[in-house]
Write a structure and sequence with these properties.
The chain is an all-alpha fold and about 140 residues long. It is built from 7 helices and no strands.
Length: about 140
């Protein structure tokens, strides 16, 4: 099995957890809360568990787009729209970073801590970590 396939299986489980946590939150508050409250709860209760530990894995662009699409579908449900441009504009309005950008930030922070570590094993892989950090696009 390829590494990408293994990561794909793990991401399926993460997305399943994301949807179940979102559905649990949304079923309790539903249409009674404002969109701002729902997005804040989505950010704190659903996104963090979905991205837990992902910074230590080599994530392909296909997997990043898949996670972005997962969150976009949830925003479409919250905003009652199918228009991707509206979703992107609302994400900007709420200050909601795309998942792919969050992954880049988390990975960069992880690699910074990894590179600065005094651990012998981390020092062995320091060059690979520096190469991977240089490939990260935070723009």
């Amino acid at each position: 099995m390829l590494e990408a396939d293994i990561l794909g299986v793990l991401l399926k489980m993460q997305k399943k957890k994301f949807f179940s946590s979102f559905n649990a939150v949304y079923s309790k508050i539903g249409r009674f809360a404002s969109e701002e409250v729902v997005v804040n709860l989505l950010n704190t209760k659903c996104i963090a568990p979905m991205l837990y530990g992902i910074e230590a894995c080599p994530v392909t662009s296909r997997h990043r787009h898949s996670l972005d699409f997962t969150v976009t579908r949830v925003f479409m449900k919250i905003l009652c729209t199918k228009n991707n441009d509206i979703v992107l504009e609302c994400q900007n309005f709420f200050g909601f970073l795309p998942v792919s950008q969050r992954i880049a930030i988390r990975t960069s922070r992880f690699l910074d801590r990894f590179i600065c570590s005094e651990n012998l094993l981390c020092n062995v892989f320091k060059r690979q970590a520096l190469c991977r950090k240089s490939e990260i696009n935070l723009g």
